[in-house]
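User: Show me a protein chain along with its predicted structure.
Assistant: Here is one chain, sequence first, then structure tokens.
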Amino acid sequence: VQLQASGGGSVQAGGSLRLACSASGIAFDDYAFGWFRQASGKEREAIFATSERAGLTYVAQSVKGRFTVSKNAAKDTVFLQLNSLKPDDSAVYYCAAEEWYRVVITSAFVRARDFGSWGQGTQVTVSS
């Protein structure tokens, strides 16, 4: 399994970015996908996770209403749309994937350790 994250950059507060996570070597529809971020000096935070096969989605309260996830199954790509960005959103963003039945997703939490494949991370910097 290989994941390639892209789309990070620098924007001003209130701006938008779209991150992409391209997957190869997997049966795309059989996988759960997650987005995590880690700011400098802080712990990794789960912000989004979705499993179509399980019909489950997790969205962190900190991004609810501002970030959305979409998929292009034909291109094996998952997108994370970041809107209304704040300086606190500055972090390295990672996508992750795992076979759907290995991942526990609830409306309250998702565990990073459930995901076995990770992209390399892409930096998002939001200036005030």
